[in-house]
């Protein structure tokens, strides 16, 4: 939605909902990026690269979900 309505690039939108969001709530040491020791909550999407994500608005490209490092 941020790409289509607000003019953000896919890279900017992804940063906004990951590392920038973690910094905004003071949780950058625990989440927001994929690093050893950080909580691993993530989606595995069925897209070729992150730039395709905005084109899937309204669809369900989720292949799998990982919460706290565990495949759901």
TrEMBL record:
SUPFAM superfamilies reported in the protein's UniProt record: Composite domain of metallo-dependent hydrolases (SSF51338)
* Annotated Amidohydrolase domain residues: 8-70
Alphabetical list of InterPro entries matching this protein: Amidohydro_3 (IPR013108), HutI (IPR005920), Metal-dep_hydrolase_composite (IPR011059)
> According to the lineage, what is the superkingdom?
Bacteria
User: Which keywords does the record carry?
Assistant: Cytoplasm, Hydrolase, Metal-binding
Name of this protein: Amidohydrolase family protein
- The species this protein belongs to is Hymenobacter canadensis
